[in-house]
Amino acid sequence: MSRTALVTGGTRGIGAAISIGLKNAGYKVAANYAGNDEAAQKFKAETGIPVYKWSVADYDACAEGIKKVEADLGPVDILVNNAGITRDGMFHKMTREQWNEVIGTNLNGVFNMTHPVWSGMRERKFGRVITISSINGQKGQMGQANYSAAKAGDIGFSKALAQEGARAGITVNVICPGYIATDMVMAVPEKVRESIIAQIPVGRLGEADEIARCVAFLASDDAGFITGSTISANGGQYLA
Ligand code: CAA
Protein backbone atom coordinates (compact mmCIF):
# COMPACT_ATOMS: atom_id res chain seq x y z
CA MET A 1 0.00 0.00 0.00
CA SER A 2 1.38 3.39 -0.92
CA ARG A 3 2.42 5.85 1.76
CA THR A 4 0.66 9.11 2.45
CA ALA A 5 2.43 12.44 2.13
CA LEU A 6 1.15 15.80 3.35
CA VAL A 7 2.72 18.93 1.87
CA THR A 8 2.06 22.31 3.50
CA GLY A 9 1.84 25.25 1.15
CA GLY A 10 1.52 22.47 -1.39
CA THR A 11 -0.53 24.13 -4.12
CA ARG A 12 1.84 26.84 -5.36
CA GLY A 13 5.51 27.42 -6.03
CA ILE A 14 8.00 24.94 -4.60
CA GLY A 15 5.20 23.20 -2.68
CA ALA A 16 3.21 22.47 -5.83
CA ALA A 17 6.29 20.95 -7.47
CA ILE A 18 6.84 18.81 -4.35
CA SER A 19 3.20 17.61 -4.30
CA ILE A 20 3.35 16.66 -7.98
CA GLY A 21 6.79 15.04 -7.61
CA LEU A 22 5.60 12.87 -4.72
CA LYS A 23 2.43 11.90 -6.58
CA ASN A 24 4.52 10.89 -9.60
CA ALA A 25 6.71 8.83 -7.25
CA GLY A 26 3.63 6.81 -6.23
CA TYR A 27 2.58 8.40 -2.93
CA LYS A 28 -0.92 9.42 -1.91
CA VAL A 29 -0.58 13.17 -1.57
CA ALA A 30 -2.55 15.84 0.28
CA ALA A 31 -1.73 19.48 -0.37
CA ASN A 32 -2.46 22.03 2.34
CA TYR A 33 -2.83 25.73 1.59
CA ALA A 34 -3.74 28.78 3.65
CA GLY A 35 -5.35 31.44 1.52
CA ASN A 36 -5.38 31.38 -2.27
CA ASP A 37 -8.56 29.39 -3.09
CA GLU A 38 -8.37 30.11 -6.79
CA ALA A 39 -4.82 28.77 -7.15
CA ALA A 40 -5.70 25.76 -4.99
CA GLN A 41 -8.76 24.82 -7.05
CA LYS A 42 -6.79 25.20 -10.28
CA PHE A 43 -4.02 23.01 -8.83
CA LYS A 44 -6.56 20.37 -7.77
CA ALA A 45 -8.24 20.35 -11.18
CA GLU A 46 -4.94 20.04 -13.01
CA THR A 47 -3.30 17.42 -10.79
CA GLY A 48 -6.12 15.49 -9.11
CA ILE A 49 -4.35 16.07 -5.78
CA PRO A 50 -6.82 16.86 -2.97
CA VAL A 51 -6.36 20.23 -1.28
CA TYR A 52 -7.03 21.16 2.35
CA LYS A 53 -7.29 24.71 3.66
CA TRP A 54 -5.92 25.79 7.03
CA SER A 55 -3.21 28.01 8.41
CA VAL A 56 -0.11 26.25 9.72
CA ALA A 57 0.23 29.14 12.18
CA ASP A 58 -2.83 27.83 14.07
CA TYR A 59 -2.11 24.68 16.14
CA ASP A 60 -5.75 23.63 16.54
CA ALA A 61 -6.42 24.09 12.84
CA CYS A 62 -3.40 21.89 12.06
CA ALA A 63 -4.60 19.14 14.41
CA GLU A 64 -8.10 19.27 12.86
CA GLY A 65 -6.79 19.42 9.30
CA ILE A 66 -4.44 16.49 9.81
CA LYS A 67 -7.33 14.43 11.22
CA LYS A 68 -9.31 15.11 8.06
CA VAL A 69 -6.38 14.20 5.78
CA GLU A 70 -5.81 10.98 7.73
CA ALA A 71 -9.51 10.07 7.54
CA ASP A 72 -9.40 10.56 3.76
CA LEU A 73 -5.98 9.13 2.85
CA GLY A 74 -4.63 7.24 5.85
CA PRO A 75 -1.95 8.09 8.43
CA VAL A 76 0.60 10.69 7.40
CA ASP A 77 3.89 8.89 6.76
CA ILE A 78 5.67 11.80 5.11
CA LEU A 79 5.28 15.38 6.26
CA VAL A 80 6.76 18.13 4.13
CA ASN A 81 6.87 21.42 6.01
CA ASN A 82 7.04 23.76 3.06
CA ALA A 83 4.61 26.59 3.87
CA GLY A 84 6.43 29.86 4.28
CA ILE A 85 5.91 33.60 3.98
CA THR A 86 8.09 36.68 3.75
CA ARG A 87 7.50 40.06 5.36
CA ASP A 88 10.79 41.64 4.36
CA GLY A 89 11.99 44.94 5.76
CA MET A 90 15.15 46.45 7.15
CA PHE A 91 15.21 45.79 10.89
CA HIS A 92 14.99 49.46 11.84
CA LYS A 93 11.67 49.57 9.98
CA MET A 94 10.41 46.07 10.91
CA THR A 95 7.17 45.96 12.89
CA ARG A 96 6.19 43.44 15.55
CA GLU A 97 3.52 42.19 13.12
CA GLN A 98 6.15 41.46 10.46
CA TRP A 99 8.21 39.58 13.05
CA ASN A 100 5.30 37.64 14.55
CA GLU A 101 3.71 36.67 11.24
CA VAL A 102 6.92 35.19 9.88
CA ILE A 103 7.83 33.38 13.10
CA GLY A 104 4.20 32.20 13.39
CA THR A 105 4.13 30.57 9.96
CA ASN A 106 7.75 29.65 9.24
CA LEU A 107 8.82 28.39 12.67
CA ASN A 108 5.74 27.83 14.85
CA GLY A 109 4.06 26.32 11.80
CA VAL A 110 6.69 23.59 11.69
CA PHE A 111 6.00 22.72 15.34
CA ASN A 112 2.23 22.93 14.78
CA MET A 113 2.35 20.46 11.91
CA THR A 114 4.99 18.05 13.18
CA HIS A 115 3.63 17.68 16.73
CA PRO A 116 0.26 16.14 15.74
CA VAL A 117 1.84 13.54 13.38
CA TRP A 118 4.82 12.63 15.56
CA SER A 119 3.18 10.10 17.92
CA GLY A 120 1.64 8.18 15.03
CA MET A 121 4.99 7.99 13.24
CA ARG A 122 6.60 6.70 16.45
CA GLU A 123 3.93 4.05 16.89
CA ARG A 124 4.17 2.89 13.27
CA LYS A 125 7.99 2.97 13.42
CA PHE A 126 8.24 4.92 10.20
CA GLY A 127 8.23 8.56 9.30
CA ARG A 128 9.78 11.23 7.16
CA VAL A 129 9.74 14.86 8.27
CA ILE A 130 11.23 17.09 5.60
CA THR A 131 11.35 20.82 6.23
CA ILE A 132 12.03 23.44 3.61
CA SER A 133 14.28 26.01 5.23
CA SER A 134 16.32 28.48 3.17
CA ILE A 135 19.79 29.62 2.24
CA ASN A 136 18.86 32.70 4.25
CA GLY A 137 18.48 30.60 7.40
CA GLN A 138 22.06 29.47 6.85
CA LYS A 139 23.78 32.72 5.93
CA GLY A 140 21.36 35.44 7.12
CA GLN A 141 19.95 38.03 4.72
CA MET A 142 19.65 41.78 5.07
CA GLY A 143 15.99 42.75 5.13
CA GLN A 144 15.05 39.34 6.55
CA ALA A 145 15.88 39.27 10.27
CA ASN A 146 12.49 37.63 10.87
CA TYR A 147 12.74 35.10 8.02
CA SER A 148 16.40 34.22 8.67
CA ALA A 149 15.64 33.65 12.37
CA ALA A 150 12.69 31.36 11.61
CA LYS A 151 14.53 29.41 8.93
CA ALA A 152 17.60 28.95 11.14
CA GLY A 153 15.22 27.78 13.87
CA ASP A 154 13.84 25.15 11.51
CA ILE A 155 17.33 23.71 11.12
CA GLY A 156 17.92 23.51 14.89
CA PHE A 157 14.47 21.98 15.40
CA SER A 158 15.18 19.30 12.81
CA LYS A 159 18.60 18.41 14.20
CA ALA A 160 17.11 17.92 17.67
CA LEU A 161 14.14 15.93 16.44
CA ALA A 162 16.31 13.73 14.22
CA GLN A 163 17.98 12.41 17.35
CA GLU A 164 14.63 11.71 19.00
CA GLY A 165 13.18 9.99 15.94
CA ALA A 166 16.14 7.85 14.92
CA ARG A 167 15.31 4.78 17.01
CA ALA A 168 11.67 4.95 15.90
CA GLY A 169 12.49 4.77 12.19
CA ILE A 170 11.73 8.44 11.61
CA THR A 171 14.15 10.60 9.66
CA VAL A 172 14.06 14.37 10.01
CA ASN A 173 15.87 16.44 7.42
CA VAL A 174 16.06 19.93 5.99
CA ILE A 175 16.44 21.28 2.49
CA CYS A 176 17.79 24.79 2.13
CA PRO A 177 16.82 26.13 -1.27
CA GLY A 178 18.63 29.11 -2.64
CA TYR A 179 16.77 31.59 -4.81
CA ILE A 180 14.17 29.63 -6.80
CA ALA A 181 12.05 31.11 -9.61
CA THR A 182 8.79 31.41 -7.66
CA ASP A 183 6.34 34.24 -6.95
CA MET A 184 8.16 34.87 -3.65
CA VAL A 185 11.46 35.58 -5.35
CA MET A 186 9.87 37.43 -8.26
CA ALA A 187 8.36 39.81 -5.65
CA VAL A 188 11.87 40.99 -4.72
CA PRO A 189 12.57 44.38 -6.37
CA GLU A 190 14.12 43.78 -9.81
CA LYS A 191 17.32 45.65 -9.06
CA VAL A 192 17.90 43.60 -5.90
CA ARG A 193 16.98 40.38 -7.71
CA GLU A 194 19.51 41.05 -10.45
CA SER A 195 22.21 41.63 -7.82
CA ILE A 196 21.27 38.31 -6.18
CA ILE A 197 21.44 36.36 -9.46
CA ALA A 198 24.91 37.82 -10.00
CA GLN A 199 25.95 36.10 -6.74
CA ILE A 200 24.84 32.62 -7.90
CA PRO A 201 27.79 30.75 -9.47
CA VAL A 202 25.57 28.65 -11.78
CA GLY A 203 24.25 31.97 -13.12
CA ARG A 204 20.51 31.41 -12.78
CA LEU A 205 17.64 31.03 -10.36
CA GLY A 206 16.78 27.49 -9.33
CA GLU A 207 13.71 25.59 -10.53
CA ALA A 208 11.02 24.34 -8.13
CA ASP A 209 11.44 20.83 -9.57
CA GLU A 210 15.06 20.83 -8.44
CA ILE A 211 13.84 21.09 -4.85
CA ALA A 212 11.04 18.57 -5.42
CA ARG A 213 13.58 15.98 -6.52
CA CYS A 214 15.53 16.46 -3.25
CA VAL A 215 12.30 15.89 -1.31
CA ALA A 216 11.43 12.73 -3.28
CA PHE A 217 14.87 11.32 -2.48
CA LEU A 218 14.67 12.11 1.25
CA ALA A 219 11.18 10.58 1.38
CA SER A 220 12.33 7.31 -0.20
CA ASP A 221 13.59 4.15 1.48
CA ASP A 222 16.95 4.83 -0.17
CA ALA A 223 17.43 7.75 2.24
CA GLY A 224 16.82 5.75 5.43
CA PHE A 225 20.32 6.39 6.81
CA ILE A 226 20.13 10.15 6.26
CA THR A 227 18.78 12.05 9.23
CA GLY A 228 19.51 15.40 10.85
CA SER A 229 21.05 16.56 7.60
CA THR A 230 20.73 19.77 5.66
CA ILE A 231 20.83 19.65 1.87
CA SER A 232 21.82 22.94 0.29
CA ALA A 233 20.36 23.43 -3.20
CA ASN A 234 21.46 26.94 -4.07
CA GLY A 235 23.55 26.90 -7.24
CA GLY A 236 26.72 27.38 -5.20
CA GLN A 237 25.63 30.73 -3.74
CA TYR A 238 26.48 29.71 -0.19
CA LEU A 239 28.66 26.76 0.79
CA ALA A 240 27.46 25.65 4.21
N1 CAA B 1 21.03 41.77 -1.71
C1 CAA B 1 21.79 42.85 -1.97
N2 CAA B 1 21.43 44.11 -1.64
C2 CAA B 1 20.25 44.27 -1.04
C3 CAA B 1 19.39 43.20 -0.74
C4 CAA B 1 19.82 41.90 -1.11
N3 CAA B 1 19.08 40.81 -0.90
N4 CAA B 1 18.28 43.68 -0.14
C5 CAA B 1 18.44 45.03 -0.07
N5 CAA B 1 19.61 45.37 -0.63
C6 CAA B 1 20.15 46.73 -0.76
C7 CAA B 1 19.41 47.55 -1.81
O1 CAA B 1 19.92 47.30 -3.14
C8 CAA B 1 19.68 48.97 -1.36
O2 CAA B 1 21.01 49.33 -1.75
P1 CAA B 1 21.29 50.82 -2.29
O3 CAA B 1 20.93 51.74 -1.15
O4 CAA B 1 22.74 50.77 -2.61
O5 CAA B 1 20.41 50.99 -3.50
C9 CAA B 1 19.69 48.82 0.17
O6 CAA B 1 19.92 47.43 0.46
C10 CAA B 1 18.35 49.23 0.80
O7 CAA B 1 17.32 48.54 0.10
P2 CAA B 1 16.00 49.29 -0.39
O8 CAA B 1 16.32 50.63 -1.01
O9 CAA B 1 15.24 48.30 -1.24
O10 CAA B 1 15.30 49.56 1.02
P3 CAA B 1 13.79 49.44 1.35
O11 CAA B 1 13.66 49.78 2.80
O12 CAA B 1 12.95 50.14 0.35
O13 CAA B 1 13.45 47.87 1.15
C11 CAA B 1 13.77 45.53 1.48
C12 CAA B 1 14.16 46.92 1.93
C13 CAA B 1 12.25 45.31 1.71
C14 CAA B 1 14.54 44.55 2.37
C15 CAA B 1 14.05 45.31 -0.02
O14 CAA B 1 15.35 45.75 -0.32
C16 CAA B 1 13.97 43.87 -0.40
O15 CAA B 1 12.89 43.34 -0.61
N6 CAA B 1 15.14 43.18 -0.46
C17 CAA B 1 15.19 41.79 -0.77
C18 CAA B 1 15.43 40.98 0.47
C19 CAA B 1 15.57 39.54 0.07
O16 CAA B 1 16.59 39.12 -0.41
N7 CAA B 1 14.49 38.75 0.27
C20 CAA B 1 14.48 37.41 -0.16
C21 CAA B 1 13.08 37.10 -0.61
S1 CAA B 1 12.99 35.51 -1.42
C22 CAA B 1 13.06 34.41 -0.17
O17 CAA B 1 13.04 34.72 0.99
C23 CAA B 1 13.13 32.97 -0.57
C24 CAA B 1 14.34 32.34 -0.01
O18 CAA B 1 14.25 31.57 0.93
C25 CAA B 1 15.65 32.59 -0.66
Considering the chains and any ligands shown, give keywords for the structure.
binds acetoacetyl-coenzyme A, Rossmann fold, seven-stranded parallel beta sheet, globular, 240 residues, 7 strands, alpha/beta, 10 helices, single chain, 15% strand
In short:
The protein is an alpha/beta fold and 240 residues long. It is built from ten helices and seven strands.
The CATH class turns out to be: Alpha Beta
Number of domains: 1
Bound molecules: acetoacetyl-coenzyme A
Low-confidence spans: none
Number of helices: 10
Strand order of the largest sheet: 3-2-1-4-5-6-7
Total strands: the figure is: 7
User: Can you say what the CATH homologous superfamily is?
Assistant: NAD(P)-binding Rossmann-like Domain
H and E order: EHEHEHEHHEHHEHHHE
Q: What's the CATH topology label?
A: Rossmann fold
Describe the main β-sheet briefly: 7 strands, parallel
Shape label: globular
Strand content of the residues, in percent? 15-25%
Mean pLDDT metric: 97
Class from secondary-structure proportions = alpha/beta
- Overall helicity: 40-55%
Rg (CA only): 17 Å
* CATH architecture name: 3-Layer(aba) Sandwich
